[in-house]
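subagent[fold] <- orchestrator: predict structure for attached chain, return tokens only, no commentary.
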Amino acid sequence: MQKIILKDEEPLTCRPGELLESIDLVAKKAELEKKLAHPVSEREVLSAVLYPGVFEEFDRFRQQYSDTSVLPTPVFFYGLDAGEEVTIDIQEGKTLIIKLNAIGKVHADGTRNIYFELNGMPRSAVVKDLSVESDVVSRVKVDLDNANQIGAPMPGKIFKLLVAVGDEVKQGDTLLATEAMKMETNVKAVQDGKIKEILFNEGEQVDQGDLLVVFE
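subagent[fold] -> orchestrator:
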């Protein structure tokens, strides 16, 4: 069972705490700040060490959408119904009153117009409806007969890229890692070669069969 799960990776033979003691947290902080392109706290460094990949995905989400913890849980997961209003404290002394007025029809590209009030002022925005499939943007799928192409084994997010264009790799080397439902999947090279193209960046969502990496 261990061999099936870990494949070629070595199992831990010590307490996880011993691994933490061996990590240079100062160097890790510098590495993390360079990768994330912003300062990080000691707590965030520990989070990245204890939950590799998971913290980086959380940080990317926070950088894109800001601190969504201010949203009431039902609103975060299910959104508002037309006519519903919510009060959100974004910081001490600053409150947003948001009322959803209407949701427009789906456009060809899978987006919708939403109409709402922000502190009594009418607003509108265009949002992507993730429940709608659109044929406007089509992704390249892996050609299973082409040995120079590597595809996504299952849906998930790219949270770790371990190679760059131009790198020479050996068969069995890990190229990148995807994450879905907190489960990590390593995508490995099936042959020796040189990386010609990488089609996704860290944090992007992929579907099963999407072309990820092309060899020369």
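orchestrator: received. Logging for downstream: Residues 25-36 form the longest helix (12 residues). DSSP finds six helices and twelve strands in the chain.
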